[in-house]
Amino acid sequence: MPTNGLTKMTKIEVVVAGEHAPAVRDQFHSAGATGFTSVSGVSGLGHHGYHQGRLLFNQQAALELLITVVPDAKSEPLIAGLRRLLDGSPGVMFVTDTYVSRPEYFS
């Protein structure tokens, strides 16, 4: 893949129940992530069956997708913290290499 001057970083995506989203955001902040994207009301089919994206009773009832991008040096501690968090609650984490055009936004 040609990267033509782009900077390699790590993208971390986490899908959790809305009630666990604040803990994921805290992990992002503690690891030094400079920002994140949050999408609530996500739907899909997984280990625990089908989840619809609509809210049942409140924001906490829906699944939330949280995405952050960090320099590679910050990724291992963040991944470790998220793994501990996910050990005690349902959810999934995806970790991928990504390339950014403005690395100063992430440091």
From TrEMBL:
Highest taxon in the source lineage: Bacteria
Source organism per UniProt: Mycobacterium pseudokansasii
Biological-process GO terms, alphabetical: regulation of nitrogen utilization
UniProt name for this protein: Nitrogen regulatory protein P-II
Gene3D superfamilies in the record: 3.30.70.120
Pfam families: P-II
Any one GO molecular-function label of the UniProt entry: enzyme regulator activity
